[in-house]
Amino acid sequence: GSASTHQPHKLAEKLTILNERGSGVLIRMNHIKKTCADPKQRPSILTDKGMESAVKYINKKFPNIDFRGNIAINFDFTKNYLDLIITYTSVIITLSRIDDKKALVGMFNCAHEMTNGCSDSSYPRLGQMFVEYEHPWKKLTEEFGPHTRSVTSALLSLKMVYPRRNLPAEQWRGAQLLSLLSAPAAMLDPACCDTMSCEYLSMEVMERWIIIGFMLCHSSLNSNQASLELWKMALRSSLYLTLTRDEMLNIHKVTEDLFDGFKGYSKRVADIKECREHVIVNCGAMHRERRQFLRGALKELFNVLEDEPGLLGPKALFVIMALSFSRDEVLWLVRHSENMPKIKTPEDYVDNQMAELLFYMQKLRGLMRKYNHVLQRYHVQYLAQFDALVLNDTIQNMYVCPEEESVLMSSFVSTLSGLSIKQVENKEEFDFRALRLDWLRLQAYTSVNKAPLPLKDYPDLAKVMNLIQFHTRMVDSVEEVLQETSDTVHILVSLFSSRLFFYPRVFEKMFNQSQDEMTMKRYLMSFPSVCSHFSQCGHPLCPEEVIMEKRSLRLCVTFLEQIAKQTSNIVLEICAEQCNLNEQLLPKHCAENISAARHRKQKKPVPKKGEVQKEKPGAESLRKDRTVATNVDKMHLTLTELCSSYSLCNDLIVFDHIVVPTEFLLSHLETRLSEIIVRMANYNQTTQEIARPSDLLAGIRVYTATLHSLSSYINVDVTRLVKNVLLQQTQPLDSRGGATITNIYTNWFLECLLRQASNSLIVHCPTMHCFINQTIDSEPSFRAEEFSDISELRALAELIGPYGLKFLSENLMWHITSQVSELKKLVIENMDILVQMRSHFDKPEEMANLKKRLTGGENVLKRMTIIGVILSFKSMAQDCLKDILQKHCPYLMGPIKCLRDFISPEADIKVTLSVFELASAAGLTCDIDPALVTAIRSMQTDNISVDEEYKLTCLLLVYIAVSLPALALDNNSSYSREHGGEYSSIRSHLLQTCLTVITALKRSSCLICRLHSLCVVPQTASSTLLQLGQNVERVEVKNRESIYLLLHMIVEESPFLSQDMLESCFPYVLLRNAYREVYRSFIVTLG
To answer: Where is the composition biased (Basic and acidic residues) (predicted)?
Structure first.
């Protein structure tokens, strides 16, 4: 009281500073309490067994303003005064809840004394305070006894404000609160009143003032009927109030416990019990109705202001009030849903439509930010052309005006009169903080006892200055107002975001309840958007609350993940439905229709009883009733609602992190789409079943086309998504380490198709350009031509691309190198014989004798058949890749072909292999397979010289050539007229393999030097094959003609051999007779 009398000039500054510091101390106390209560964060000194006795000892021995307030007139001064009382009380109560406070302070003082040789100077005073406030409420009531008159006066100034704010939704609806359309003629009139700042004052703040204020100054409840009525009204509104963060005050219990200790307060205790019952019975439904009203009111307000943003100028107060009322209702639900009493209607404390309310609060906030220039332009003109004139007239009509007060008021007028619309147009920065602080000073000067200029005698001055203060805030601090979370005006969602941050369970429960409602899905993005305001919850006095960033980001990511998961699920369900519809149109399902068309003239059979007629594709599009919603309709509606939520914002800033909601959706779609593509392949490793590449490609195309329709709902790059997914499928593993279709099809072709081909169960058919099944007794597990014809291999090339085929090729080459390795061992075993045969190929008798001494001839042919099968398949796949690339990028294929054709045999081998590697990757056929060169080069060993390797390769050619006649005994070696080739699949691939081995040795720098080694094949083979003609009646000549043709095919398909070379050692007449023999019984049927 003395301070306010003798030093009024510093009262405004003291209130401002003490409130700011008090809030920081309160937050810090709360942090200490949480830290000590958390076993993971509790200081180790309090849990150390060695310190236990010291802690017990310390705990055992631990020591021993008067003014006239009216909130409608001096709003800022009264508010700061009441806030300071509540902050002080909250600090004391929070301090009393820290169980380890004595141990912490005592240990600190001991450490200070050991370090500095003396106790901390503040320790005695703090220690005495701990002792005195052992029972905080009792001590606080004693402290505030002398201040009862001033506190009561300030609280009773709320009797006109608080009841008007605490009305049921029916009265709000009857008064058409917050509606701009209720009075169209007054739509452009400025929204103002005599108590501007009181219109958006927080209900919880007022209730906290009233409840705690009358607890501290309780004597007025028995002596003043107005105090009693105001106190009971506050008690009938809530069960809990917030001290700080998530520290709650059970107001009825605490008040009842306090008044039980006072004589003559039995009636007040009865009032408390009656008020508590009233809250339990009525308040849940009342606040539910309020939230329901606010949802509609905010939606209407936003739609009008979005359409006519110019109305933000005169109706800014409506937006502030809407945000304030909504904030109050959200906070009430947060406080009470976490501490819900046992009642018959628990649904009143659950709101599954909270997302909509948060959404429109965010939207209104966004409008205020977006059209800040509209607010500035309107209010600058209002201040200069109206407020300044009214203020000047008010000052002129004052009959008493001391000098200091006169100076302040004159500065107000001059500051406002100097404003101009050009300042807004020139984008000058406005700063009216000095003016608002001077107004707070003036309130302090005029509100103390015996003030020369009592403000209560000049209400018009207070009204115009409160109006001016609101208008200045709309000019220079809209962003500050929107983000404010401390002790000044709380007007927006960011205020309660701090409370929501410390109630993550409530927040997550609200989200889960909202996402289950179809109509709320479009508003779900408001939850992660609120997380972006959590960065404003901290305080400079408690920087240790670093957990905020991690928890905020985790909460935001959790919400975005769930929204993205829902959206991706519904998108992919629609894709799956479209894929099913498309699958009905595949050619394999038209057999029934074709059969019916062939028998149209026949009598249509009568359907059996109970038999359901199969619907034709397209029947789902026939509608008999437009009101009947199909499953696809419902899915599209859900997708529309979910995608609408992404329109709230493009990105969110959570502390230092920029979060893009659509990226979460793309990430989910990428993961799920990869899984679906692999699942669509239907690969069963046990039964070796797999989907045909063409069927998989058709399904992927449907998914891709349907995904592209997502762009009409939401702005996402679907093309990038599809490219990422399909590009990953061209690798053996995707980004998550899972198997891809490249891996799956590589394994299937190697382990299933080519393995059976190696065992002659499946053979290569040059005419049909595919593999076909041999005729056997048992039913084959699959038809080879359905997986290896041109259409299927082209589909495979389309699916896995050049990268996937390169992986497939590498695996094929590994199998070839293993066969080559075994062939080399056979050559080494027979090296001496093969050397002689190489030099005596023109001596039939010696060749016949030497051939009898060879071992493992059939093994050589078996392994070369395997190599031939693999290279035949590789060649087919390469041709299909070439066709696909020619279709998609002909401009790229042309230069590659020219470069390949430009290479001559005389070119350097390194250059040649580099060009061939490029051409091979594009699917072009090359004289030398670079993949095979790389594979064989990698299998070379250091203990064998290059000359030795070259020699082994040349002898391998001899070995193969002399073993060819043995194929005549094999039934699989017969020439098939229908299929146009040998079943054995050796043909030119044996030369390609051997030439690659020679190339890999790097024996010389050009290809010409390698070609001489290949001449031994027709020379040696002709010597042994001609001997078959001398054995006319022996079994060995069973497939003689087919083997002759095999030799001809080898020369014909090899780029390194010529017909002249063959005719020099093998008569052409034998080839002609062989063709005539194999085609003798073949009947050609012409259509």
So the answer is: 608-623
